[in-house]
Give the backbone structure.
Amino acid sequence: MKIEKTPESSVITRTPFPASRKIYVPGKLHNISVAMREVSLHDTKIHGRNGAAEPNAPVTIYDTSGPFTDPDLEIDVKKGLPQLRSEWIRARQDVEQLDMISSQYGQQRLSDSKLDELRFAHISKPLRAKPGQNVSQLHYAKKGIITAEMEYIAIRENQRIEQHIGELNGKANALSHQHAGHSFGANTPKTFITPEFVRQEVAAGRAVIPVNINHPESEPMIIGRNFLVKINANIGNSAVSSSIEEEVEKAVWACRWGADTIMDLSTGKNIHETREWIIRNSPVPIGTVPIYQALEKVNGKAEDLTWELFRDTLIEQAEQGVDYFTIHAGVLLRYIPLTAKRLTGIVSRGGSIMAKWCLAHHKENFLYTHFEDICEIMKAYDVAFSLGDGLRPGCIADANDAAQFSELETLGELTKIAWKHDVQTIIEGPGHVPMHLIKENMEKQLEHCQEAPFYTLGPLTTDIAPGYDHITSAIGAAMIGWFGTAMLCYVTPKEHLGLPNKKDVKDGVITYKIAAHAADLAKGHPGAQYRDNALSKARFEFRWEDQFNLSLDPDTAREFHDETLPGEGAKIAHFCSMCGPNFCSMKITQDVRDYAEENGLMEESALVEGMQEKAREFADRGSEIYL
Amino acid sequence: MKIEKTPESSVITRTPFPASRKIYVPGKLHNISVAMREVSLHDTKIHGRNGAAEPNAPVTIYDTSGPFTDPDLEIDVKKGLPQLRSEWIRARQDVEQLDMISSQYGQQRLSDSKLDELRFAHISKPLRAKPGQNVSQLHYAKKGIITAEMEYIAIRENQRIEQHIGELNGKANALSHQHAGHSFGANTPKTFITPEFVRQEVAAGRAVIPVNINHPESEPMIIGRNFLVKINANIGNSAVSSSIEEEVEKAVWACRWGADTIMDLSTGKNIHETREWIIRNSPVPIGTVPIYQALEKVNGKAEDLTWELFRDTLIEQAEQGVDYFTIHAGVLLRYIPLTAKRLTGIVSRGGSIMAKWCLAHHKENFLYTHFEDICEIMKAYDVAFSLGDGLRPGCIADANDAAQFSELETLGELTKIAWKHDVQTIIEGPGHVPMHLIKENMEKQLEHCQEAPFYTLGPLTTDIAPGYDHITSAIGAAMIGWFGTAMLCYVTPKEHLGLPNKKDVKDGVITYKIAAHAADLAKGHPGAQYRDNALSKARFEFRWEDQFNLSLDPDTAREFHDETLPGEGAKIAHFCSMCGPNFCSMKITQDVRDYAEENGLMEESALVEGMQEKAREFADRGSEIYL
C-alpha cells in the first residue's frame, strides 16, 4: 500500500476493510466514476455432494469512507483530498473565483501571522455565484437540469443492485416464500433509482443534495425519504485541545464506520482553522451551527449577538465550504414562555442562545427577521438550510408539546420562503419522544413542512438509561426512519454525561447504521435486504470469514468469535460455539434440507407420499447420513 | 454490612445500589412483605431564591435483585436463600412431601458418591400435589382464590406509585401540557393493580405466575401484557467448566441488573447438580429446555430420544423446582419440509432436535403425542409451559413464513389443551423480523393463542450487525413489547458469535430493560414515566448524583461523567461537560423560567401585555440576572 508516512497522515486511519476493494462505476450522462466497496465471498461447499462448490457473487456496499480506504491513493492531509467536483462546478459557468475572502473575520485570521503554523497550507480563493446567478442543486433541478451530482447519486444509491436483483429475487424465491419480489414501501421507488428520479425529488423539495461549491472534495449524497436513510455524526474539538490532525482523524474515523455527513460543533479557539482542515479532508458534506461560532466572537454573551456579526460568520463558513447550516430561525419570542412550564425547558444550545437574545432585547429572533437575507447568502454558495428545532423536547415528559409544534409550524413557513429562493432545506426534529408519540412527529412534519426532508436526533424513547442513550435513541431512530425521516443524527453512549472518545463515536455510528438499515428494510428500499441475505447465507453455511466481512463491524465480529473459538480451524468448523461439535441446529437444518431435496419432499404433499417408503430405507442406513 | 465471607459467598456480588435501601411493603390479605428498592434524592436548590431548597421524594423501583442487595441479610449459597413461600404453599394443604426423589436419574445422581462434593448440601425432599389435586395458580384463580402470590404481585407491580401519583400528575401537569394524567394504553389497567385484577388475568390465561412449589425461594412475579414488560436472561455453564459458585453468580449478576427470570441452558456434565445450586439461590423463576438435558442423556443422538427418558427428565427438573419448561411440541412432522426452502432453515436448537427425531423415525413429534401426559406432570408441581417456537425464522428473509405460522397455530391448539388441565402457558415467538412485519406476529399470536402471554426473542430487525445484536434486537423487542408481548428474551452482543461473558450479560440485560421500559411508557403503564421524570428533573437541576443513582446503570453513568469531569466539584457544578462553564443551555432555560415566573409571563397572553414595560427595566439591569 503506497501510503505516505508523514506525521500527519500517520494519525489518519487508512486500513482497507477485509476482503474488500474499491470499485469505481462510470456514469452515462456525465464523465464521473462513483466509488463503492466490493466484498468478495468464498464459495459455498455443498455437503453430501463430494465437496462440490458453488460461487457466491461479491456484495457491493454503499461506501462513505472516501479515498482513505483506497490503498492506491496517496493522501496528504496538508494538501487535502482530490477535488472530485471542481470541473463539474466550473463547467456550469455560473460561478466566479473571488480575489479574496469576503468575510472580515476570515481576512483577520488570514492576516494573523501567529496562526501561520495552524493554517491549512493550500487555501484556494473562494468561489461564489456570479451576480444574479443561483448555484443550488434545487435551482438546477427546477430548470430540468440533471447535474453530475444527481447522476452520481443515482448510481451510488443503487449499489449496483441491478446486477444482483435477479439473483436476489432468485434467492428470495428459493428462501422466503412471501418476500420474493415483495412490493416496496409507499416511500420508496418501485424500481431502481434513475438520475431523472433524483432530479424530480430535489425539484419537489423532498430531497436535498448538500454540496457547497467551495467543498469540491465531497462525494455527492442525497437526503430524502425516498432514498437510503442517512446518518450524521457530530464531532468537535475536545476541551483538551487535540492536534488538528487528530481533528481530521475524528471525521475520517466517523466516515469509515458509516457517517453520511459530519457536523462540526467545535467551540473555543482556532475553530476557523480547524474547520478548514476538516473540510479540505472530508469526503462527506459538513454541517455547522454558525451561531456557536458567533457566540464565541462575543465571548459567550448571547445578548451581544448582532445580525451583522452573524452574517459575516455565515459568509466566512460558506466560503470555507460548509455544506449545510443549522439555523434556529423558528425560536420566536412568543414561543419562549411556552417552555417555562416544561420539565427540562429549552435543551437545544442554539435555541437557548436565541431565547436568551430575544428576552434580553425583547425583539423578535433576528434569524427570523433576516431570513431572506440569509437565503441570498445560501444560494450564492449552495449551502442548504437545516432549520433547527431550538424548542425540541429534552425529556419524555416534554414530548410533542405546544412549544415544539408551534416552532415546527414556523419552520414550515420558513421552508416556503427558502424554496422561493431555490435554497435547499431540511427540517430538524426531536429529541426525546416515547414510542407511541413518534408517528405524530413525522405526520405533523410532513403536513407543516410540505415534505421537506426530516432530520431527527434519535429520538430517545426513555430517559432512564444515561450511558446507553445510543440504544434508547436507536429504537426511536429506527422507527421514525421507517416512518419517513431522511437522516438520523447519531447519539453516543456519552450523551448527557461527557465528551465522546473514539470508541464512543464508533459505537454511535454503528448503532445508527443499524437503525438506518432497519428502516431501509422496513421501507423496502431496493436491495436493502441483499446484504442481510448474503450475511445470513454465509452464517448458515458456516462461512465465518464471509459473515465477519459482510458485517457493519468486521473487526468486532471477528474478535468476539475468537474470544470463544480462537484459531483458523474454528472459522471453517461446521459448528458454532453455542452448540458445540456434537450437535448444531444449523447443521441439522442442512441435513433436513439435503434429505428433503434428495427425497423429493420439498412439498408437504410429496412428504406424505414419499414418507412411508423412505422410512425403512432410512432407518436401515442408521441415519448415518446425518452425522 | 454483615456479609459472611466464605469462599462461596465471596464470588457473589452483594453490593447495594448507591443511595438505595431495601424496603418491605406489607400485604393486607396475606401475611407477606414485598421487597422493593428505594432511591433517596437530594433537595432542589432554587436559584435566585437565596439558596432556598425544596425536597424531592424518594423513588421506589421494581427490584429483581433479591436478598443479595440487602446488607442486613446473611446469605450462604451452600444453604440457599430463605424459603419465602414455603408457608404459603403448605397452608393450602394440597401438597405432600415425598419420601424420595421420583425420577430415576435424580436417584442415580443422589446415590453417586463421586458427586458428593458437587452436591448441594441441603436438598429437601420434593413436594408434589396430593393425588387428584392441582396446585397451579391458574387452578386457584379459576376457583376465585386470591393467593399470597397474587397479592405479592399486585403490590410489587404498583411500585408504591399510589404514593407518588398525585405528585406525578402534579409534575406532569406542571411540566407536560398534554400528558398530565394521560390515558393508559388499551393493554393496561386504568388504575392501580389490585390482587383481584391479578387473579382475573391469571384466570383468563392472559397472565402467568411461574412458581413451582419446589422453588419456594422465588419472589412472585407475573408475565402478562397488562403488567410491566418482563425480560429473561439466559445463562449456561461455560465450555471451560467454571465453579458452581460462579454459575450461581451468573444468575445473581443477571438479576442484579434487572432479569425477571433466568433460563438455565446448561449442557454437558453435572447440569443436574449445577441446576440445584442455581434454583436454591435464585430469587427469580428459573426456566429450562428439558430436551437439552435429555439429549445429553443419549449422548447427543437425537434419534435415540424416547418419551420415557424425556418424562423422567421432566420429573427430575420439576422436583428440583424449575418454574417453566420450554417444550417444542409444535414442531410437527408435516411442517418440517416447509423449512427446506428457507435461507437459514431451522435455527432453534430444540426445533432441530425434534425435527431430526421426527425424520429419523417418521413419526409425529412425541412431545405432541404425549402432550396431555406432560400436562399431568406440570399441574402436580405448578410448572408453566413455555411452548417453544422450534420453527422460528433465523433471518430476515425467513420471517413470517408458512413454517413459522403453521407452528404458531398448533401452539394455539396446545394452549387450549393445557388450559383444560389448568396448566399455565406462555407462547414463544421470533427471532428475526424486519420492523414492518413485527405487528403481524403479535396479531396472529393473539388470534391463534387466545391471548396467552407472548414471549419473544428480540426480534432482530436486521442481520448485518453481528457483535451488536443486542441493539438490532432491542429495536424489535421494544416495538413488540409495546404491541403486547409480555416478556422479552434478551440477546447479548455475543449472539451468533460466541459465549457471553459477565460484561455481555450485563449489556444484554440493561439493553433489554431499556426495551421493556420504553414499551411500558408507550403502553402507559401506571407510573412507568415517574422514574423518567425524576431522572430528567435531576438532570435539569444538575443533581448529577441523583441522575446517576436513578439510572439503570449508576456505575457506568458515573464513570462516563468522570472521564470528562472528574472530581466531586464537577458533580455539583452548574454546567455540563457539553457546553462548558461559559454557556449552558440548561442554565439559560432555568433563567428563562425564573424570568417568566418572576414577570408573570407564563402565558403567551401575559407575555404580550407584560413585555413592553418589563423591557426597559430589564435592559437597565444589564441582564446581569442571567449571569
